[in-house]
Amino acid sequence: MKLCVFDFDSTLMDGETIDFFAEALGIGEQVSEITERAMAGELDFFESLQERVGLLKGLEFSKVEEISHSLPYMPGAVETIAELKKRGMTVVCFSGGFRTATTYAKDILGYDADFSNALHVKDGKLTGLVGGDMMFNFSKGDMLVRLQNILGVSEEETMVCGDGANDLSMFAHAGTRVAFCAREVLKKEANIIIEEKDLRLILKEI
């Protein structure tokens, strides 16, 4: 294998970044309910993302950065990425979440690049708008195919790892498909299933 793509929220990081933001505004339960339904494949990802980010309007960007820089990473994330890179793999993060979290985590966790979304900020506060690379249900698969073409990597040489419905599109283009503490909708398409919160367990399966 030459390429490995990880999801970020609930895969490399233990939780959902947007839910942590919502908790700071006292609307954690409202947002996490939408997040859960989106990850289970019950809601369109683009619509659910717009709705959830809209609810964050007015949150101080300094608070967003503070939360993004203190997220709990998944056990084994650093060790697993280091081992995959030692084996000669390019390791990338695709996230339907936000650059404030994924770009900050890049050097801590050790992956090579991150593709995620940017929160729109004006006068130091979130406007409730969002844009970026990972806005749609098809985004991860679309970006994976582009990366494979650039790097000259085949589907058989690609491993992907995620937990929710918005990871399905990248599962369609990878030979090794890891469902990590995942929703049922993703487990059905996986050929490796990990049920324990320890990313190092993947290394025993590949």
Topology at a glance:
Blueprint (H helix, E strand, L loop, with lengths): L2 E5 L9 H8 L3 H12 L5 H10 L6 H8 L8 H10 L3 E9 H11 L3 E10 L2 E8 L6 H13 L6 E5 L5 H4 L4 E5 L3 H4 L4 E3 L12
Parallel strand pairs: 1-2, 1-5, 2-3, 5-6, 6-7
Antiparallel strand pairs: 3-4
Helix pairs in contact: 1-2, 1-4, 2-3, 4-6
Question: Total helix count?
Answer: 9
Number of domains: 1
Overall mean confidence score, pLDDT:
96
Q: CATH superfamily membership, which one?
A: HAD superfamily/HAD-like
What does the overall shape look like?
globular
Strand ordering within the main sheet:
4-3-2-1-5-6-7
**Regions with pLDDT < 50 over 5+ consecutive residues?**
none
Tell me about this structure:
The chain has 206 residues and is α/β, with parallel strands linked by helices. It has one domain (3-204): 3-Layer(aba) Sandwich (Rossmann fold), CATH 3.40.50.1000. The protein has helices spanning 17-24, 28-39, 45-54, 61-68, 77-86, 99-109, 139-151, 168-171, 184-187, and strands at residues 3-7, 90-98, 113-122, 125-132, 158-162, 176-180, 192-194. Strands 4-3-2-1-5-6-7 form a 7-stranded mixed β-sheet. β5 (158-162), α8 and β6 (176-180) form a beta-alpha-beta unit. α1 packs across α4 and α2 packs antiparallel against α3. The chain is globular, with a radius of gyration of 16 Å. The chain starts with a strand and ends in a 12-residue tail after the last strand.
